[in-house]
Amino acid sequence: MLLARLISRIRKILLKYQSVPVHLWLDSSVSLAWIRGQPSQWAEFVANRVAVIQEHVPDAKWHHVAGTDNPADCASRGLLPLQLLNHELWWHGPAWLKQPSVMWPTTVPALDVTVDLEHRRSRCTMINIALKSTWDLIDRYSQLNRLLRITAWLKRCVSRFRSNPHPSNPHALTPEEIHESLLFWIKETQSRYFANELHAVSKGTPLPRSNPLSKLTPILGQDGILRVGGRLNHSLLDPDAKHPAILPRECSFSRLVISDVHHRTLHGGVQLMLATLRRQYWILGGRSPISSFVRRCVRCSRYRAVAARELMGQLPSSRVTPARPFLNSGVDYAGPFTLRTWRGRSARQYKSYLVVFVCFSSSAIHLELATDYTTQGFLAAYKRFTGHRGLCQTITSDCGTNLVGANAELRRMFSAASKELADLAHVLAADGTAWKFNPPGAPHFGGKWEAAVKSTKFHLRRIIGDAVLTYEEFNTLLTQIEAVLNSRPLCALSEDPDDLDVLTPAHFLIGAPLAVVPEPILIDVPVSRLSRWQLLRQFIDRFWKRWSAEYLHHLQTRNKWHQPERNVKTGDLVLVVDERTPPSKWPLARVIAVHPGADGLVRVVSVRTSTSTYKRPITKLCPLYVS
């Protein structure tokens, strides 16, 4: 670069030698490659200096000189005065320089491949030019009023940029500007969805009968908008109500219009919204797009509170398989009930609880009275139950919050993580009994024992009333109610007057109904013990045969939930139903896991709210289908 500046300065002084060719030499092949190349391909430091060199001597011819023939090396390496005095290279240059230019050396040493020439990193820039339509603007906003205001401001700016002779208004938007924006979007929508219809109506060509607009007799208004022709020209309605603007069923602008009407009618219903819309617009499809929007409204979904449902599942094998009574049982608590220590006036009153056991196969009921809500109290009732009915293979109950009539202590004892349940499970495991729980918040999973509790309370209320009984009196009453409940027919009576013997749960307990008058004792026919045993087994087999023929078929039909519904999926937004609070307070939740049954249908899911994670049946959830 110093050489280039020196030559540039000398040429400015010697003006008459401006046309003389300039030959410059350097002994660095790397520098020579830099100078001969374009500055843009080198790194920034090298590129700046190469650009300066080429600017000072643009027409110079650069050559390579060996280091031994370069006079500049004498100065850079240094010479003694005696050496400098007679140094031929310093004073006269290389010998070949005195010869014609054709005799000058032209070879340039090959560059070492390991030498870095400081190349600039290549960058590839791709430019994609796309013309954005106005529909990108309409998809940015969820409110019609905001879209119209933004459009009005843009139209005002465009007028200023086009040097409109009318002065621009620096103040707030006027109603006329908002109305012009509305007409602009109506025209844009119609030109996109009704281009053929607009062309036909403008030419006076009738539309074919298959066209959905043919029944509306469309006309082209003075503002260039496609409107309903109709038959109300002589009515007293407003012009917009006589000839409303036609809009397609599914488009962004129609959704904004429906949303605006929905909020202006204070989340009104379908009929109110349709009547309001028809005063200015005619959206194809009538009620259907409005109903679809209302179903997706989150606030309306809260108060509509339509819980999810699914096809009623199959009965478990313990309900439809013959087995010993109470081999598979369900248990539930009821109460509390007030008892007294004795029948005197000064008797102390205390609370007691009813423990209801239900047989899954025979629907037999066993009632026990527990004097407290401790683990020991339940174990005592359980031991009395197994002492009368035998050990159970499985016991099923609701999860804590669903225990009918139980207080907080009972809920805590039956919760899945309580220490008391661990003690109960340990005792039951020693007897070979497994305790199973229904999902939390799903009382309909335990309809068997819920019905037993309801039937027991039905008789208790009518017999006791406001009276306070002693333990002995109350326990005696429970035994009588148990006998009555176990003597109920398992299925409806037939219309045959000769068919008086109905199948009851008591048939599986003692071979006959409990609440009947005892028959007189007959003289036994002398038969062998084996024959008598075979006769008893024949009676029991006959009861199970009648159970399979008469009772089991009544379980075949579904009283509700007849059709499979859309499965609740992971990621769905739902409302968690809470009967203690109004729908506006129900928490929003997201489904994080589904627990399908054996048939692949989802009836239980896990949801996450803002505070915790729960496992709930779908009947306690209200899906929000807000796409």
Automatic annotation (TrEMBL):
Any GO molecular function: nucleic acid binding
Record-linked Pfam families: DUF5641, Integrase_H2C2
Source taxon at top rank: Eukaryota
GO BP annotation list: DNA integration
Residues annotated as domain Integrase catalytic: 321-513
Protein name per its UniProtKB record: Integrase catalytic domain-containing protein
Highest classification ranks of the organism: Eukaryota, Metazoa, Ecdysozoa, Arthropoda, Hexapoda
